[in-house]
Design brief:
elongated
Length: about 150
């Protein structure tokens, strides 16, 4: 394979690297065979993963070759990878959960429908929504208890 359009440390052509990231374009694959595709992935895997395999996202070639998971689409990719054992680094998990916690906090005070849409748009896993909702209820319960005790003492 002759690299075309090399830049930085990309070990293959940029067109080929982009296909590994996004999948074949509307005009078809830039690879002449499956073997050429596999060779490109082997050669450029570290580069492609460094560029596009982070923040709870994976390149299309990763979905095709390195997992049994079905690609859920861009909107649900992060929560699917978060649930899958051993896929995300600890740093990625922390990053995603921090962002989701912020989205959860932003949803406070929204109506039920708006909150559901906001959390779905941010791909916040149902398990975290449930855990954080219970945590919020427990905190609220602890905050009310002293006031109730003062009222009862009167």
């Amino acid at each position: 394979m002759r690299p075309r359009g090399r830049t930085d440390d990309c070990p293959i052509g940029l067109t080929e690297a982009m296909e590994l990231w996004l999948g074949p374009g509307p005009g078809g694959s830039s690879f002449r065979s499956r073997e050429e595709l596999l060779a490109a992935w082997q050669c450029a895997r570290d580069y492609v993963m460094r560029m596009w395999g982070s923040h709870g996202r994976r390149p299309q070639i990763w979905w095709e070759l390195e997992t049994d998971l079905l690609y859920p689409g861009y909107a649900r990719e992060r929560s699917v990878l978060w649930r899958a054992a051993g896929v995300l680094s600890d740093a990625e998990r922390v990053e995603l959960e921090r962002g989701w916690r912020e989205a959860f906090a932003e949803a406070r005070g929204m109506g039920a429908r708006e909150r559901r849409e906001h959390l779905a748009h941010n791909d916040v896993p149902d398990e975290l929504i449930e855990a954080w909702t219970q945590e919020r209820r427990r905190r609220r319960g602890r905050q009310r208890a002293p006031l109730e005790e003062v009222a009862a003492a009167k």
